[in-house]
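Contributing new complexes? Match this layout with pyridoxal-5'-phosphate.
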Amino acid sequence: MNITQLSRKNVQALTPYQSARRLGGNGDVWLNANEYPTSPNFDLTHRTFNRYPDPQPEAVIQGYADYAGVKQENVLVSRGGDESIELIIRAFCEANDSVLYCPPTYGMYAVSAETCGVALKTVPLTADFQLNLAEIEKNLNGVKVVFVCCPNNPTGTLIKRSDLLKLLQITAGKAIVVVDEAYIEFCPQATMVNELANHPHLAIIRTLSKAFALAGLRCGFTLANAELIGVLQKVIAPYPLPVPVADIAAQALQPQGIAQMKQRVADVLSEREKLQKNLENSPLVEKVFESDGNYLLVKFQDGQKVFKTLWDQGIILRDQHKAVGLANCVRISIGTAEENQRVVETIAAIV
Ligand SMILES: *Cc1c(COP(=O)(O)O)cnc(C)c1O
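Output block (do not edit by hand):
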């Protein structure tokens, strides 16, 4: 048997997550991973590298708890929000349980479930990118975890709060509801954090990768009641956060770091509005979907042509053509004013 044949069957069958970086491209304008377009600047203040780090560094947990308005016991820090997705599946799903999610949405729910050998159930979003609660309810049998991304990546849609509450109702005592709030800083009023007190089966995923402009740091959070956090603590790696990561994350969560994040959000929102208007004026654009994130989902007459033309000119966007219901759609992260302008001009030059 060769090495691949020795690997688990579900790993043999696995298509790895097509991350923006993995997809490659030879660009100088990177608008395909919803990153912030410029880097914040931090110096390391901790220089003790011979000792293992604190498993859940106090300054990071305290900083995030204060920022999110919860207690320290409600916060778990991990290697990005992506690790949180996998921890929840690993901690709650037996081999014959399943995970439910609603495409088009973030690709890692499926990849993590498949990696863990857990079955997938999908209930597509409705035509206006909302939850199909009737179908979800019919499909809950054997489901241990339901993932909802809000605002949703890649559509930018906010899922109706009343629907999230209904989902929490129909899953109580049966399944964990994960609300992925990776982009919540761009619409902070929509957070479900204040519902934690009412729902022991609610878990909220957060990250420093988007509005905090620290995707390179690999730092994310789970917010939940203490009992759920305790379950995740059992399965997380012993030292998930390297010393330099904890050092920078703690600084980013200081009042000054939060103020800088809020300024960044304001800048992104005004750039998003400009880009949206400019794209809506293009004859090649069929629709720019309303977005509450740092990206726009755009439906073109010929999305693949636009994607390829910009790709060839070093402007790397995210093609969504193959996502459920998103034929001819391209996701464009909000870049700097100059980058967004280049997108608009390059599209205008396509005949
Ligand atoms: C970016 C993102 C995450 C988490 O990213 P990390 O870099 O792993 O923290 C989680 N969910 C969604 C929907 C995202 O777009």
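Reviewers usually confirm one structural detail per submission. For this one: Residues 34, 80-82, 106, 149, 153, 180, 182, 205, 207, 209-210, 215, 220 surround pyridoxal-5'-phosphate (CB under 6 Å).
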